[in-house]
């Protein structure tokens, strides 16, 4: 009898230890890799566009969850500020244009950044690529805003070919890291931002079928991005990181039509608040964190949501203070409805540009950013006039039902007066919270001639 009780007790202890170890394993914070494809258009990946070559991106997107209603800002710096802070850019003064090297502009220093929160939870945090959130003083640069290391550039783009070194440096970080510590890798590539340039081998191998010269080069640039993405994810898999990882892939704005980016069938381009400028290509992938994969999620999501979503994925909800972002973690991991019913495309009094989304409806007021047409994939050199439908005339307000009309072809301002008035009221409420844009005049103190011929910190 004593022996039987001893066996039962031993068995119970063993089961308890096994269950406890499983719980601990499940609670272990995941590695988080946040990949940004600069200026990648809605129609610049081969799971949407038959002229592109992105097999690695396609595979991960289809195995994971394609985020079909993931919105970003019309430009670089504003989107990056939203990711890093969880605030709409018009609440941080970064709603007007991208930052330029001559300006005393930066992500406000009083904001807690995403890597700072993750580091407080035990993560190592590294950034490789494009910063574009200020550098006039070292305190605004990545290693002073939460990252352990940074290799990259501070402004919008570089005129030298950097894609290989960014990939190799990322691989070096992965190899050197102790996998027992959770890793946050922020990889904002320059790809596929202009200048339009790529080694000829990529054009010859993947893009010779394209008749338009600029689009052919863009195709090669996208292929390089896909190769880099494939190399990095392959290494992560080889070294065992993929067993517990959250992989995020997104663009920062729509594709720039003048530089062969394409957002077809959506309207507009980078710089605009049309869907083509703000509805981004995005997906998430994980081997162990999602209850359902291999599908497209249409839930509404905005760039500001990544801040609380990533933080909750690390183990605990963000509740230190109120932000604009809403955690989409349950939406992503359990396919529950998105908590978001409304977001602001932009509020920029300086540019007279205003747009909001509430439910299915979108209201635009004032300037749209230009490039108002619908731009198909260019097949030959020179844009054919008959390929572009002229935009219909419109008044100061434009109202669209995005669910029924995602291409923004039917303005409802004349037929939906009640909804128009409701949307105007909502827009006015948001406008009342706008922080004036921090878009200073050029400062001669920034002149590279004063800093050994290089753009440098230390002048503000």
UniProtKB/TrEMBL annotation:
What GO MF terms are annotated?
A: metal ion binding; sulfuric ester hydrolase activity
Q: Which domain of life is it from?
A: Eukaryota
Question: What cofactor is this protein dependent on?
Answer: Ca(2+)
What keywords tag this UniProt record?
Calcium, Glycoprotein, Metal-binding, Signal
Q: Which Pfam families match?
A: Sulfatase (PF00884)
Give the signal peptide, or none.
Answer: 1-20
User: Where in this protein does the record put region Disordered?
Assistant: 441-460
Q: Which InterPro entries match?
A: Alkaline_phosphatase_core_sf (IPR017850), ARSB (IPR047115), Sulfatase_N (IPR000917)
Which residues, by range, are in coiled-coil regions? none
Q: Which residues form the Sulfatase N-terminal domain?
A: 30-315
Asked if the keyword Ligase belongs to this entry, the reply reads no
* CDD domains associated with the record: 4-S
Q: Which family does it belong to?
A: Belongs to the sulfatase family.
Q: What is this protein called?
A: Sulfatase N-terminal domain-containing protein
Q: Which organism is it from?
A: Littorina saxatilis
Upper classification of the source organism reads:
Eukaryota, Metazoa, Spiralia, Lophotrochozoa, Mollusca
């Amino acid at each position: 009898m004593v022996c039987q009780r001893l066996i039962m007790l031993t068995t119970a202890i063993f089961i308890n230890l096994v269950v406890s170890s499983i719980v601990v394993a499940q609670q272990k914070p995941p590695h988080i890799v946040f990949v940004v494809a600069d200026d990648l258009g809605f129609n610049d990946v081969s799971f949407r566009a038959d002229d592109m070559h992105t097999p690695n991106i396609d595979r991960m997107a289809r195995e994971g969850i394609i985020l079909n209603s993931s919105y970003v800002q019309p430009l670089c710096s504003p989107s990056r500020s939203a990711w890093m802070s969880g605030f709409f850019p018009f609440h941080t003064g970064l709603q007007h244009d991208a930052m330029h090297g001559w300006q005393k502009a930066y992500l406000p220093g009083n904001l807690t950044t995403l890597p700072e929160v993750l580091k407080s939870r035990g993560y190592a945090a590294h950034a490789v690529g494009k910063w574009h959130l200020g550098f006039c003083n070292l305190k605004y640069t990545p290693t002073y805003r939460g990252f352990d290391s940074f290799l990259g550039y501070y402004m919008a783009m570089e005129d030298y070919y950097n894609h290989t070194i960014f990939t190799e440096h990322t691989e070096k970080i992965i190899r050197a890291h102790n996998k027992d510590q959770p890793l946050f890798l922020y990889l904002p590539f320059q790809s596929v931002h202009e200048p339009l340039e790529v080694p000829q081998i990529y054009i010859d191998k993947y893009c010779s079928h394209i008749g338009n010269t600029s689009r052919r080069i863009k195709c090669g640039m996208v292929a390089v991005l896909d190769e880099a993405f494939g190399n990095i994810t392959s290494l992560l898999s080889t070294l065992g990181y993929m067993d517990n990882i959250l992989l995020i892939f997104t663009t920062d704005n729509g594709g720039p039509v003048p530089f062969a980016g394409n957002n077809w069938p959506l309207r507009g381009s980078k710089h605009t608040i049309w869907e083509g400028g703000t509805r981004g290509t995005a997906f998430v992938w994980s081997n162990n964190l999602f209850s359902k994969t291999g599908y497209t999620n249409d839930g509404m999501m905005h760039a500001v949501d990544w801040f609380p979503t990533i933080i909750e994925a690390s183990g605990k909800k963000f509740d230190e203070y109120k932000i604009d972002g809403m955690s989409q973690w349950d939406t992503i991991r359990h396919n529950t409805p998105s908590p978001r019913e409304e977001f602001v495309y932009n509020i920029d009094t300086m540019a007279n540009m205003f747009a909001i989304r509430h439910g299915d409806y979108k209201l635009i007021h004032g300037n749209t950013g230009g490039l108002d047409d619908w731009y198909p994939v260019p097949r030959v050199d020179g844009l054919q006039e008959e390929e572009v439908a002229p935009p219909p005339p419109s008044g100061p307000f434009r109202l669209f039902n995005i669910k029924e009309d995602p291409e923004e072809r039917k303005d409802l301002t004349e037929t939906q007066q009640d909804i128009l008035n409701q949307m105007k009221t909502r827009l006015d409420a948001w406008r009342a919270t706008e922080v004036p844009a921090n878009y200073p005049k050029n400062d001669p103190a920034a002149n590279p001639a004063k800093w050994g011929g290089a753009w440098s910190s230390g002048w503000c």
